[in-house]
Design a protein that fits this description.
The protein has 2 domains: about 120 residues, 3-Layer(aba) Sandwich (Leucine Aminopeptidase, subunit E, domain 1), CATH 3.40.220; about 325 residues, Zn peptidases (Aminopeptidase). It has 16 helices and 19 strands. It comes from Sulfitobacter aestuarii.
Length: about 450
Amino acid sequence: MSLSLRAATADAIPLHVLAEEALEDWLAAQDDTTRNAVAAFGFTGGLGQALALTDAQGGIAMALVGYGTEQSRSRGRFHLAGAAPKLPKGAYRIAGGLPDNQLENETLGWLLAGYRFDRYHKQSPLLAEIVPDARLDRSRLTALAEGEMLTRDLINTPASDMGPPDLEQSAHELAEAHDARIEVIAGEDLLAQNLPLIHAVGRAADRAPRLIDMRWGDSGPKLTLVGKGVCFDTGGLNLKPGASMELMKKDMGGAAAVLGLAHMIMACRVKLQLRVLIPAVENSVAGNAFRPQDILTSRKGLTVEINNTDAEGRLVLADALALADEEKPDQIISMATLTGAARVAVGPDLAPYYSDDPAFVQALESAASRQADPVWRMPFHAPYEPMIEPGIADLDNAPKGGFAGSITAALFLRRFVTDSRYAHFDIYGWQPSDAPARPKGGVGQATRALHDCLAELLNL
């Protein structure tokens, strides 16, 4: 989705952002007509309230948006986005009342409130348009919003139209838009080029498995993003029950997230060498599907005992991470809708991540706070390493017992990165119910925070 932000103009409708405690002082400076209208419509400055006030000709003279209290604001984010759908058609500019450090976030939230997934069914557009403050970097805002919208579109598209070839096509379109280079290894060529786990997971599907490899930039630090691209996950021979299969179109949420982040990086012309690796597969059921108790040999040479074919994401990521690590980039980041255990631990709103690098942790968490893009650090807990060692092979893809499922998955992935700094994100990629700027459906997680802290992470 491409955005075109309107430049600030004198005829934009002034929008006053009013916290509950600020309303009385603001009203004291207004005329009787305004005070009477505010009282008549019951506007109190409550979070999410919106009120448009007309002039003598019946046009909109100004609009008020409630900013609530500090306590009410702490229970959510993108507060202006919650009020935007309640305002009549027009272009609005923030005229005051919003803290400077929230100006970018709230403007971005308003832009994201205009997102509609209308590929299959047309939806009503957001009528109230925001005009970004002149102090904001409009190109950065556009890149952040477009990157997030790309991620949402990819996740929301059903597997019938977003299989491995379609995900590859989306990557080609992104590469073309930014003059990036792209190579794809597909089908039996995966075996010829030593990517056996990707091949094993995807070989039972009608649409061939593949590794998508995109590169951009020729100077600066090297950043490699690896995204899980399981376009649909039946669970394989360890078939999921129907209820667990309902959202499996989103099992390529890691791939969608890294492509959205890649757009942000390339659109903002960040001075680094970017590589994006996406193992794109379907985990299907057929006579040639990989089986429980199979032992597979990975690109890195580590053997893996398959104790559950529904723990396939870590397998395809393992080969991609081993390939990424061979170039020894300055930073590798993997993103994946990997485990239900992560959802049980922190719910759908937080993005759990793993890193043992104090500089990475500090930079990310500071950026996450600034960007209203929450994350939560999880431990690479070394005492759990024996849980992923079955004895008959080097690694177990699905340790029995059910304990620490997200941690053991992260420990498994870390075995395939030995020469580079590494961080892993076990995201959900789905908004379960409507929230301001985040309609029910696919959603990006941690990507804006990562984009914000890249300069600090990579010493740019």
